[in-house]
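Hi D.,

Good news: the full-assembly prediction came through. Inputs first.
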Amino acid sequence: MDAIHEIPPDNHIEIDEKCIGCILCREACPYDAIKMKTILSEPIREPIPTINPKLCLNCGACVATCKTGAIELVASGKEEIHPVIDEEKCVRCGYCARSCPSEAIKYGEILPRAVATGKALVIDPKQCIGCMTCTRVCPSKGAIKVGKVSKLPYIDPAYCARCEKCMDVCPSTAIKYTTRTAASRKFNRIHTTEIVSEVLEKETEKIAEATSKINSILEDIANNIIKEHDEKEFEIDVTDQIKEEIKEIMDGEIEIDEIVEIIEKTKPHREIKSLEEKCVGCGACVDECPVKCIELEMPAPISIGEECVYCGKCVQVCPVKAIKIREEFFTVKDDKILFKRREIKEPKSGKVIHDDMICQACGICVNKCPVNALSLKDDKIIIDQETCISCGECENICPVNAIKLIENGA
Amino acid sequence: MDITFKKSKNALKKDIQRRYMELEAMEGQSLDIGKCKMEGKFITISPECVRCNLCAEECPVDAIADAKATRPARLLENCVKCEICAQTCPIRCINVVESAATIDDEVKYHLKDMKIPHRTLKMKNIKVDSEKCKGCGTCVRFCPTGAIRLEDETATIDASICIGCGACANVCEEGAIKLERELGPVIKTKELLIDQEACVACQICEENCPTDAIRLEDEKLIFSEDKCILCEVCSTKCPVGALKLKRLSHES
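Then the structure:
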């Protein structure tokens, strides 16, 4: 390297800055007269993460997660409380960006710089065939975006380095130079549409996610009403309550405009009991019960087993009105959603309808039917309306809501 | 489910401006979002999930995180919306939601459950190993039809109302439940229409197809119908509209 020189007059040794620190000289010196001192230059630091003040909730999540204590919440004078990153302490790990609940912290992305004048590249959407070759050759990440709506690529002038690689490979010569102002204007127009569609899509997804919980909400509302009310029969308009509860699981600014249908998947709550003080133990119900779930039992005159299908036959034959069946369910009347409790005083009547398309042919309704009115043929349910006693047990047990009882007069 | 939500246009504008730093360069200029309508399709798993894990097992692209006793099945980002899970879920808690977001005087979101035909599912044989069963009762809580009860601290299954979903077997920590079932074939609800004339042989479909069902040979599209899961990847990615997914009518 020629880094070692003998300097007259005493011919002492000096080492100049050409030295690469290979320490061959130190190893060769018999008197250990050469020592090496290592100097590390200052590390080259990446930019620190940026915090978008408009998105930041000042929640302090980043402060808590920062391993080196580089983020502090600061409030001074007129400034409201906000997080500040200490450039010295920050090790650029990006952990804060991952912990931010509102996506306000960006890390590892270079933010665009606005240059006012000069020329810029644009893609002419009329000539572009959408082959995306440009996106593959572009060396600058983020310079060529692909429109979700138009499905065509477009160039962000703030990221584009004008290397012209895309221009060279474009098979349809759709990439051309234009003025920077025109390019920015074009970009902003396309990009705004893209952002709007992205925001709409994200929001719709969030709403769809939230609406999957509607059934649980309805179930909660039903349980609360059942607990609070002990009237024998009632009809409560729950439309506003449902709207309120659904609104609560959404983000503040979204509200319900119109409900066309939400109760399709709810199932009725049913309950049967015998009044000991009234029952005379005549046994009329025992004979009438289609599932033979009623037994005479001492000391209580009768006991009703879990197999009960709530058909209402026993209620009708009981001479002393000692059996009560009540049913609670959601229903719709004049655009209002009602929660209703009613007593079943006579055998139910109606028609069972079945949807082949949703039915999974598991056959449990066939097994559960107390009067064998259902059968399965070629994976399709066949209903014998004559035999059917309209108890609704099939509707209640169907795991996919493929079978329904339409009650007369309902 | 069929429901419409609304929100003011100003609230949407605020969201847009807040979310994107890039638009800061445009400050001062008024943000004109105009009128538009966007249609979409989402798959949701409702909390009623019985943890049978059948959806995850049937998903052709592994886009569903396994359901466990402690956690319902969860859709992952690589979902390609083929709807097979919705056809399979034995309690229909996976829904395909059709959505339309409209910006006019205010922003409206209309969501409606699509009616998806269901594959057949039949329980063939189910057995509880009474040696292994510890009587913890977890299976009882998840059974969608209430077919399981504890008798003498052992789970007892009423086979007549068992649908064979396998929730009990999946949540059982002891592996005490053995189930044999018969799951019917996936129902074809859509058809992929290919326009060879319009195709520009860009290979985007070939690159993106999750099941290698489509490929280019001598600038011609070769389509393997048996591999295709009728997801919406190629039809949405095709830049020239040479691939279209058409929904078949299933009302009969």
